[in-house]
Amino acid sequence: MSDLLQAVASNSLVALVMATGLVGLGRWRPRPALLHTFWCLLLLKLFLPPLVTFSTLPARNYEVATTTLWQVAGLGGSSGAAEIASVWNWTNSVWVLWGLGSVGMLVLLLRQVWRTWRMLGAGQRVPAELQQRIARLAVALDCERLPRVLLTRQCLAPCIVSHFRGPYLVLSAALLSRLDGEELDGVLAHELAHVSRADDRIRWLEALAQLVFWWHPAVWVAVRRLRQLEEVCCDARVVQAFPHRRASYARSLVTAVRQLASAPAPTVAASGLGRTSQLQRRIQMILEPPTVSPSRPRLRTAMTLFVLVAVFASPLLVARELPETSAPVDVMAFRGEPVSFSLRDAEIREVLTIFAQLGDLQLEVAPEVEGNVTVELHEVPWDEALYRVLQGQGLVYEVTDGVVHIRPGKLPPLVASPRVVAELEGTSYYDGQGVQGPRFEGGPAPLYPEEARSGGINGTVVIECLIDPQGTVRSATVVESNADVLSAAALDVIWDYRFRPATLDGRPVGVRWRVPIRFSL
Fold it and tell me: What share of the chain is helix, strand, coil (3-state, %, to 5)?
């Protein structure tokens, strides 16, 4: 799992906890403006980085990193690199699925936006009297941004449409002809309250959240709750600005909704009068001053604290409770020349210098890397030896422009790929997670073919073997070679190699293994 997916997983869990708390908080009907702020905070949380960086999750696909080291050292062919670099893990599938869903959502959103903006370009001329009425109401509502007014012949509910150049107030010409002066003021005041609250800007946040996190249920719940709360907040703002017009304002909403009951808001980018199903409750709140039960403020306070804890404390809980998920590294990815090490309290920087010389690497070691290392390895590929030293010292590496950067971190464990690969004479041969690979114990040196010697041919032959539970080679196949004459010489000698058997849960098992045999003049 990459660092980005780690952050998404953390924020997604926090968003689910927040959504659960906010739904519960809404049952006690706290201040709509406070609840609206919390739902906006939920959407923002999805885009903010986690408060805590996970140290237990891997930062990269290490098989590719190992191949990069091999290529930087100049010790491997392109076929082996392509084989490992083409490994497709589940994170690739996640990114592809996520991207396809976002593309589909983008198409839907662009279609709605295009339809709305086309409508904005076909508006009618606005009467001066209507402009003056809107300006007067905007002053009473402390609305600093005066929206552009658009009259349309379409049967649309009054709404505020978000636009790059500022909000548009869309009004149906048919509706204006059916409203008297006070009713028209009520409808206009409600829409101006949306502008005063900057609800049109919240539409952009909603659209971005739906585009990126289309798969998250909390996003869709948040969008629906935000629309509901905005209508209640706008009602409260209008009643606060015109307390003597409660009855006329309620009547204006009823008239507008009755005339345009089947007329939807143009797009997801619009803030309108709200749903008809919520009208009864809203009118009741407009006409009757709210009463609060003495016991409810404590419950609301408790739920509010719960939401705040979900925002700031959940990443800490996630960082502590997530299990170890580092992707194991297949030991067959290491193809360096076998080396033996016996180090006692050696300075880590000096050891890294030795590996740089072995692999012809350009190393850059972070200043905080220090300490001593004790390690004993026998006939281990040099790149595997480097991996084990870094793993034991709590270090990781990254390759950038041919330079190997070493810094503190945690490497995934060394295992083999998980499956039974062959059946031969009743013996199961494994290449699986939890298998401790075989170790070379000895054997004759390969004879350098005279033809290759006279022709100056050298290189490494990689042979894939089936090694039985007794450590004996039962079958062998050349999987990588730069000369047939070297392949034949390697196959001649592989049968006499002795291995310490591979083990699974402490018992010897058969295993498929790749053995590099190097020919060098």
Answer: 50, 20, 30
